[in-house]
Amino acid sequence: MKIETYIKRIKINRQFSQSTIESYTRILKKFDEYIRTNSSDNRSLENTEKLQLTDIEWWISSEIEKWKSIRTCNWYTICIRNFLKYAERRYEKVINYKEIMLMKESKKKVEALAESDIEKLLQFMKEDSSKDKLTKTRDYTILSILIYTGLRVSELCNIKVRDVKKELQVIGKNHTLRLVYLFQEHLSLIKQYLYMRELKDIDSDYLFCSHSNNTKGKQLSRNSVEKIIRNAWIKAWISEPVWPHKLRHTFATNLLRRWWNIFYIKELLGHTSILTTQNYLSATNNDLKKTQNLLKEPAQEKDYEVEELIEGNESNIFNDYNLYQNYIWKIKLKDRLPNNSLKLKS
């Protein structure tokens, strides 16, 4: 089976994203080239009958020797297994692809930026004198949206002008639709950027597009966004490396540090499983140390008025989960209370 045939099929049937399709194409062609070069009997990936299990194992070993990570090599293995699985469904003779095992990955530490570094990045992008005003406004808007919404780069690049509103609808992984909430500052920046773009006669359906002469108006690519963030990191003299997905980690971690409900964070990030969100939100050592140090402090009691909780501003109460539980409990007991108030521990 030809690689091109498989790629067309998964593009139609599996509805993978464009970046996933490109990744499959690149990996399968790379493996096919390795087999053709290193085999003596004209073996290839397209001729699945002659393919051997050792071909895959030796190729993965050669990639590890090139300092490829275990996670990357496991992704290579998954692509090849899926290709062979599809070939088997087409009644082609293939090796037992189930014997191709994945390597055990060490748990990856989630890295997030310090708030001081976030301020430095934003300040540099706002004052960067090496760019014209239009490009500077675009890049600052991109950075601010990534930091304060947790968008993926692919989701950011696919935003169209007609979709821009305070409650922004984006299509994430597996073509799932979710809401992303923009701040008023973001809407003002976007309005300013689009006005400046119109003055330069740059027309594009996409919110963020290229300004250069050769590609004017074309959708801004994922690599372009990564380059923007990387350049800002280098020129802002930030010690820790910065890349777009790290800003997503930072968004989630900062919400966790402010004691947000992890289920709300899961929805904001667009995860299908809470386990994925837990991987993002690993607490730092400083957070754990501060939490443990609370044991040294004397316990404090707070007084809450029942009528204040029930008739007051509930929106403020719901920001604290413990207060929310007390609120529900007091509503249930309101009819039994002899007086209008009751002292509770928070």
Features:
346 residues; mainly alpha; hpI Integrase, Chain A; 3 domains; 2 strands; 3% strand; disordered C terminus
Describe this protein's structure:
The C terminus is likely disordered. Helix 1 runs antiparallel to helix 2, helix 5 runs antiparallel to helix 6 and helix 6 packs across helix 10. This protein folds into three domains: 97 residues; 171 residues, hpI Integrase, Chain A, CATH 1.10.443.10; 48 residues, no CATH class. The chain has a two-stranded antiparallel ribbon. The protein has 346 residues and is mainly alpha-helical. It is built from 16 helices and two strands. A hairpin with a 5-residue loop joins strand 1 and strand 2. Helix content is 55%, strand content 3%.
Give, in spatial order, the strands making up the sheet with the most strands.
1-2
Sheet having the most strands: 2 strands, antiparallel
- Helix and strand string, N-terminal first? HHHHHHHEEHHHHHHHHH
DSSP helical segment count: 16
CATH topology of the largest domain: hpI Integrase, Chain A
Report the count of strand segments.
2
Structural class: mainly alpha
β-strand percent reads under 5%
Distance between the termini: 66 Å
CATH class of the largest domain: Mainly Alpha
By CATH, the superfamily of the largest domain comes out as Intergrase catalytic core
Helical content (DSSP H or I, runs of 4+): 55-70%
Task: List low-pLDDT spans.
Answer: 301-346
Mean pLDDT: 80
